[in-house]
Structures are given as C-alpha cells and as structure tokens.
C-alpha cells in the first residue's frame, strides 16, 4: 500500500470519527432542550408582582404576572394558576408591601370593603385621621390611597392693632394618604366630590392636625411618585416648613408691621422701675 492510499484511509477515518462526534453532540443537545421544556411545562405557575406594590395600594390585574416556580417552593398561601379567578386579586388593598417579582400571598391582600382595612394597612405606631376637604383642597380627584401629600394650612391672624393678615403654611410634609371619599360611579357618570381625606399620622401629628383644622382651611398638595419610589416608609414631617403671607401674592394686601426697634434699659430703685430710652425718649 503506497503512501497516498494510507493518507486517504487516515483522512477517511478522521472524517467518520468527526461526523460521529458531531452527531452525538447534536442529538444530546436536542435531548437536553426537550427535557428542559418538559420540566418547564411541568413547573407550577404562581402570581407575582409585576411592579412594587406599596401598602394601601388598590390592585389591578395588570399589576401581576404569571411565572413558573419550583414545585417545592410553592406555599399553600401562594396564588396559583390552577382554578384562578381574577376577582381574587382585582380591587383588593395591599396589606403588606410586595416587591417586584415577589410571590403574591393571599394574606397580603384584603378586601377593600372590609371594615378592618384601614387598621390593617396602618404602619405600627401610626394613627389614621380624617380631615375635611373639597374639590379644590383635596386635589380634585388626582390623589388616591397610597399617595403622599403635604398638608397646607390657610388662616387669618390678627396683630395688636387688630389688623388682619392672611397666611398659608405647609404644616406637614410627606404624609401618606390612606383614603379619600371620592368615587367614580361608572362610565359616563359624574364623580362625587370628596368631603374627607384620611391621613396616616403620628399621635403628636394628630394633635397638631386637630388644632390646624380649627385654625383655618386645610389643603392637600400631591407629591411626585419619584419622591417616595421604593421607600414607602419615609417618615412624615409634622412641623411648619414654609409660609407665605397675603402680600406675597397680592399687592393690595398689607404687609405686617415690624416691631419698632428700641434701645432702652430698665432701671430699678427699690420697688420702682423706670425705662430709659437711650435714643433720647423717656
């Protein structure tokens, strides 16, 4: 056998071995993919949050998605695809915050008509308090449960000369709105104007809010979602942060008089006290 024949024989053997190897790899890959698909089909699907749902949020069907979940990791309180009905999750109130991608448990949602709804969604140590609002002071239907608002007090003060001045102050900031009694009655119907808004406040803030309601008119200012995104437990501020006088918005309104500066001292002789004005007055 000459060298040419030997070389061709070796080349043929190498080709056969290569073809056999590639065939085995191909069929092995196909088999693994098939087994993987079968395994995925057999995995149960549970409901998870499509986006982070904060406490007090009212749920919609688009807030959730179905995902395959390891069979051993499925708990009895998880909501599974088998026998699922949309009314199980639609229109419910989030009792415990659900982060994006986390399984939805039956205990994390409660019926919005349940009398214990407000107590269930209250942060421990906080209180629920209602204030009177109207279409103008209550953000006119743009605020919903779970939103954050600032509380503005508008009132009139009187100085020593019995002159009256209007002032508006931001007395509370970043307060969670638990609910507002403005409801839509269906397509093509009018919206009933809100009369009360329920806020989540600390016990001390509740005292201040009660007093503020007696002093003047309370208004709600809706905050951007970006201010509270991912941090639903931001601590509310219960103090006056800023204020505006009537003359700041209208030139017609008078500016409060500043107290005259004095340069005087008190001189006490026995039981008698005299005030001496160093500027020359008595």
Automatic annotation (TrEMBL):
Residue spans of biased composition, Basic and acidic residues class: 271-282
Region (Disordered): 255-282
Domain SAF: 44-110
Pfam families in the record: RcpC, SAF
InterPro entries: Pilus_assmbl_Flp-typ_CpaB, RcpC_dom, SAF
Superkingdom field: Bacteria
Name of the protein in its database record: Flp pilus assembly protein CpaB
Species of origin: Temperatibacter marinus
């Amino acid at each position: 056998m000459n060298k040419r024949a030997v070389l061709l024989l070796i080349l043929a053997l190498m080709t056969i071995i290569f073809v056999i190897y590639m065939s085995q790899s191909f069929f092995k890959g196909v088999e693994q993919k098939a087994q993987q698909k079968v395994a995925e089909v057999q995995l149960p699907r549970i409901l998870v949050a499509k986006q982070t749902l904060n406490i007090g949020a009212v749920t919609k069907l688009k807030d959730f998605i179905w995902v395959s979940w390891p069979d051993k990791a499925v708990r009895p309180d998880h909501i599974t695809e088998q026998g699922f009905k949309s009314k199980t999750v639609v229109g419910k109130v989030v009792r415990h915050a659900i982060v994006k991608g986390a399984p939805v448990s039956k205990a994390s949602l409660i019926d919005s008509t349940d009398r214990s709804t407000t107590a269930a969604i209250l942060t421990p140590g906080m209180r629920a308090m209602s204030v009177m609002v109207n279409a103008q002071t209550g953000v006119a239907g743009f605020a919903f449960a779970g939103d954050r608002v600032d509380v503005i007090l508008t009132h009139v003060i009187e100085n020593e000369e019995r002159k009256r001045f209007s002032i508006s102050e931001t007395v509370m900031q970043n307060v969670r709105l638990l609910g507002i009694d403005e409801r839509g009655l269906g397509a093509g119907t009018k919206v009933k104007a809100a009369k009360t808004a329920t806020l989540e406040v600390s016990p001390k803030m509740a005292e201040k809010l009660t007093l503020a309601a007696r002093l003047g008119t309370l208004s709600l200012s809706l905050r951007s979602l970006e201010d509270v995104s991912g941090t639903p437990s931001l601590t509310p501020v219960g103090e006056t942060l800023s204020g505006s006088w009537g003359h700041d918005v209208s030139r017609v309104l008078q500016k409060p008089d500043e107290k005259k500066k004095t340069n005087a001292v008190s001189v006490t002789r026995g039981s008698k006290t005299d005030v001496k004005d160093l500027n020359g007055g008595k």
